[in-house]
């Protein structure tokens, strides 16, 4: 492929999708392609530090005080955290629908700016990692790629549990009620957004028996991030433009040295992270920290945006931000919120998980990890104190699980998803034709 094709990445304004795109973009950049990221103003300079160009945009009017990266979503999660204690079917009206509306409002607001950016850059390919449609992407007149960096239940199928439900695959008794409630709470909003997309020249949004969807699939190339060993069995195959990336671990993270205090000890080395958004729930984070502080284990804590409010114990080290792909190979167990990046990175490095889901697709990841035996799902706000330590001990003692995860890790690291994605994107840029599975 000739050098210096222009590939534009447009990830959602959160660390998970952005980091996923950074991993792929870094491969393309090293091959000589021009890689440009469209990012919110609060992320300004973050991607330039990795050697990428940036184009800035906003998803809403400027605030009265300066923002930090992803501040809108941090505030949103903090203010709505009480909703996470409710069953997932009740969250459809109280959390999921308002989240969709906030995302839709951002898509409507940014549409003129996106058109301006695409007219300026004239990219060869646009790569989008979002959960709502942006008509400017699909009407730019160039091939575009959709990346799904959430749980693959997002690609609706009759044999896959309803997205955001956290329901088991083996028991479908609650599926219909969840889908009916989803449609009841979302259809009016979907109809208004569908009309907006059509007004901007895009095709209508998809809908069907599994419910309404807020984003199109690309007719050119669609990628999703999940290891084959944890993927769902579907009633019918995905369209031929869909390709699974078993992993997508970025190679741009800084070096990190394990402190001497944590190099040796009687207990295991445990990593705690609820993600940049989940860690905004200070009460939950502090409870986990306090419980882990009573154990014999050595703990590494990704403290997140409210880091100054958290009190660590003597058996802990931590910081606001940690280079997760650098740390995961070192640890024995991962305690996570079930974000898709952390979940798939844990598979990539062969680490068992304890998952405490908070919102969105985290329930689906938690359920999938638990029902396939790759870790334990705990009730995030209702687990008993002794449950956490017992889950760690059980995972540490499961030698059969360790062997399974080592085999998965070996396979994933032999075929990095970042390279596969870059190959497929370059193929699309070179031909302009749909890239079908072989």
Describe this structure in words.
The protein has 13 helices and 15 strands. The chain is 39% helix and 15% strand. The chain is globular and about 60 Å long. By secondary structure, the chain is of the alpha/beta class. The longest helix has 34 residues, at 88-121. The mean pLDDT is 92. The strands form 3 sheets. It has a 7-stranded parallel sheet, with helices on both faces.
Radius of gyration: 21 Å
How many beta strands in the DSSP annotation?
15
* Portion in beta strands: 5-15%
Please, what is the average pLDDT? 92
- Record the strand order, biggest sheet: 3-2-1-4-5-8-9
Number of continuous helical runs = 13
**Cα end-to-end separation:** 20 Å
Q: Helix/strand/pairing class, anyone?
A: alpha/beta
* Helical content class: 25-40%
Indicate the low-confidence ranges by residue numbers.
none
Q: Report the major sheet.
A: 7 strands, parallel
The SSE string, one letter per element, is EHEEHHEHEHEEEEEHHEEHEHEHEHHH
The shape, in one word, is globular
């Amino acid at each position: 492929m000739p050098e210096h094709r222009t590939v534009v990445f447009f990830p959602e304004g959160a660390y998970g999708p952005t980091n996923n795109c950074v991993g792929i973009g870094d491969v393309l950049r090293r091959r000589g392609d021009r890689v440009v990221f469209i990012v919110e103003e609060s992320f300004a300079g973050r991607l330039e530090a990795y050697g990428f160009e940036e184009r800035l945009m906003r998803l809403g009017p400027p605030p009265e005080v300066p923002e930090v990266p992803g501040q809108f979503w941090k505030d949103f999660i903090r203010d709505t955290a009480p909703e996470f204690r409710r069953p997932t079917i009740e969250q459809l009206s109280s959390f999921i629908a308002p989240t969709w509306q906030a995302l839709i409002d951002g898509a409507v607001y940014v549409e003129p700016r996106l058109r301006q950016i695409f007219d300026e850059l004239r990219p060869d390919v646009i790569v989008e990692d979002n959960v709502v449609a942006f008509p400017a992407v699909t009407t730019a007149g160039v091939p575009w790629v959709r990346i799904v960096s959430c749980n693959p239940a997002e690609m609706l199928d009759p044999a896959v549990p309803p997205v955001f439900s956290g329901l088991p695959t083996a028991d479908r008794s609650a599926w219909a009620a969840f889908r009916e409630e989803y449609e009841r709470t979302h259809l009016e909003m979907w109809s208004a957004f569908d009309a907006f997309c059509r007004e901007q020249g895009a095709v209508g949004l998809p809908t069907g028996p599994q419910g309404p969807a807020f984003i199109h699939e690309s007719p050119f190339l669609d990628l999703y991030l999940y290891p084959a060993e944890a993927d769902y069995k579907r009633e019918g195959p995905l369209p031929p433009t869909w390709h699974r990336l078993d992993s997508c671990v970025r190679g741009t993270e800084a070096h990190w040295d394990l402190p001497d205090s944590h190099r040796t000890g009687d207990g295991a080395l445990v990593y705690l992270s609820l993600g940049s958004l989940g860690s905004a729930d200070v009460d939950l984070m502090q409870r986990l920290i306090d419980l882990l502080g009573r154990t014999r284990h050595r703990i590494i804590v990704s403290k997140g945006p409210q880091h100054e409010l958290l009190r660590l114990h003597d058996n802990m080290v931590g910081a606001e931000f940690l280079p997760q792909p650098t740390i995961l190979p070192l640890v024995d167990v991962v305690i996570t919120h079930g974000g898709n990046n952390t979940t798939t990175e844990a598979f990539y490095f062969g680490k068992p998980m304890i998952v405490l889901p908070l919102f969105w697709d985290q329930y689906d990841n938690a359920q999938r990890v638990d029902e396939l035996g790759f870790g334990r799902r705990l009730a995030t706000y209702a687990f008993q104190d002794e449950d956490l330590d017992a889950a760690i001990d059980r995972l540490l003692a499961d030698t059969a699980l360790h062997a399974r995860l080592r085999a998965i890790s070996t396979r994933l690291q032999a075929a990095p998803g970042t390279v596969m994605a870059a190959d497929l994107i370059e193929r699309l840029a070179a031909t302009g034709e749909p890239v079908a599975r072989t």
